[in-house]
Amino acid sequence: MIKINRHKKIKMLVLGTGFSNDIILILSVLVLVLLIFYLSSYKFLRKILFLFDPEFIHKISFHFLKIIFLLPKSLSFWKFFLQLNNDKLKKEVFGISFDNPVGLAAGFDKDAEIFDGLSSFGFGFVEIGTVTPLAQQGNPKPRLFRLKEDNAVINRMGFNNDGVEAITSRLRRKKSKIIVGGNIGKNKLTPNESAINDYVICFEKLFDHVDYFVVNVSSPNTPGLRDLQDKEPLTKLLNHLQKINNSKSHPKPILLKIAPDLTNTQLDDIVDIIGETRLDGVVATNTTINRDNLKTDKLTVDKIGNGGLSGRPLKDRSTEVIKYLSKKSNKSFAIIGVGGISSSKDAIEKLEAGADLIQIYTGFIYEGPFLVKKINKELINIS
Prior knowledge:
Blueprint: H1 6-15, H2 21-40, H3 42-49, H4 54-68, H5 74-82, E1 91-93, E2 96-98, E3 102-104, H6 115-118, E4 125-131, E5 144-147, E6 152-155, H7 164-171, E7 179-184, H8 195-206, E8 212-216, H9 231-246, E9 254-258, H10 264-277, E10 281-284, H11 298-304, E11 308-311, H12 315-329, E12 334-338, H13 344-353, E13 357-360, H14 362-367, H15 370-382
Parallel strand pairs: 3-4, 3-13, 4-7, 7-8, 8-9, 9-10, 10-12, 12-13
Antiparallel strand pairs: 1-2, 5-6, 6-11
């Protein structure tokens, strides 16, 4: 394999191949100035970013991050501003030692392109995916919408990703010590009757390159996927994965990502299934299809149409699910709490409800990169 040095990568991403190192140096200084502005004035910058299409801005921001993570001393710069190292933050969950309990949820770094760089943002872990066996473009655009009045997002992305082969090749080049979770799903064209095969392919390909797995059967944006949450097909799927997992010399933790729209009876089934299949835990919760009690006017929401809602409106329901599962199971399995966390108070609420770890995504978009540090700082203060 041909190795490309850092300067050449920057040239390829930004300048092409015909510019001098002096220009690269000048650009690097300008980028650092922009970074300082970004860190100190995120709310102002957010107003500008939010003038543009959400998916376009995500793509541009993502490309920008790929560039700055390649700059000399860039990771040290981010770590200085954003990372907290304190023994009070350390947690051991499902046999893995986490430097802190705040993770980045699946969906941000879908294709495992910048997980090494994101390690400098202060996260205790990063979850990549959702990964499917074959690359797929996802649902037609537009498919990502902001509800600014609600600090929320509606998405119907549809598991767009580069496929497990490409993603695995990037994970092989991992340089940091960041804990990486692999969120796996099925291709849109795979019928539910054959879904197990898709999950097995992803599990086997990713096994040596991730620290834990999340089985995603709860996205509302792949037709029929949530049917796999029913007790019989879900038990069959998880038992099959556990059989393969237990055949390995060092099995990996497997968690189940569930929807917030499940009834208490369905949540009781989840508790039973976790016990029966001896899964390590759940990620609670995915996005919701519920549209109740939004501040955004109904006409706007109806015009957007289908998709999973994330952000502040999901906060209370995801906390309810966490609390219910924790109590019902008598804390017999781990819970990663996600949904509507946009402050340290929200994070603590999830942990007090029974979550062992937490994840952010939409809150990260609305509040900026300092959110991780704010949460960890408050966790130190109350410990």
